[in-house]
Amino acid sequence: MNLDKETIKKIRGLIVFTAIILIGLWNYEVVLDGLGFIGRVIFPFVLGGAIAFVLNVPMHFIEEKFFRSKKMKKNKWANKFARPYDFVCTWNHWNRCVCRSAGAGRYGDESWKKYSGVYSASTGVGGKHFSG
Fold it and tell me: Which of 44, 56, 67, 107 has the most crowded CB, counting CB atoms within 10 A?
């Protein structure tokens, strides 16, 4: 075996990598807690990116169909409010589809209140009546 500088660096790297893996396996609870923390921090950003990606397709369609004509390009008001209007339309449509598929308030019942945090004055936390 030729022990030049490059080979020694590779061997040293393998030893350090093996030591890190062994320490991680011995303390797997700490490693899993750390990965869970990192996942909890990153999750909102991933979710936001996914929602933005999904909503961009209908927003682009609405913008192209309603706000990209020659007449609308000259209108400063239309250019200024095109994206917010597209977002409100898309968000409204998306919310309606998601709420309908989830069955929120579909049959006139008030089961959606159980999950929305909206309670009447006579009920307490979780919709249970106060006694007394």
Answer: 67
Q: Which of 50-59, 68-77, 90-99, 118-127 has the highest mean pLDDT?
A: 50-59
Say what the pTM is: 0.51
pLDDT tens column, 63-95: 787 777 666 767 777 777 777 888 888 888 777
Separation in Å, CA 129 to CA 26, 58, 95, 121, 124: 51, 44, 31, 10, 6
Task: Measure the CA–CA gap between 110 and 78, rounded to whole angstroms.
Answer: 40
Secondary structure of 28-79 in HEC code, one letter for each residue: HHHHHHHHHHHHHHHHHHHHHHHHHHHHHHHHHHHHHHHHCCHHHHHCHHHH
Pick from 97, 104, 67: nearest CA to 83: 67
104 — alpha (psi -120 to 50), left (phi > 0) or beta? beta
Q: For residue 83, which of 53, 55, 54, 45 has the smallest C-alpha distance?
A: 55
Q: What is the CA radius of gyration of the chain?
A: 28
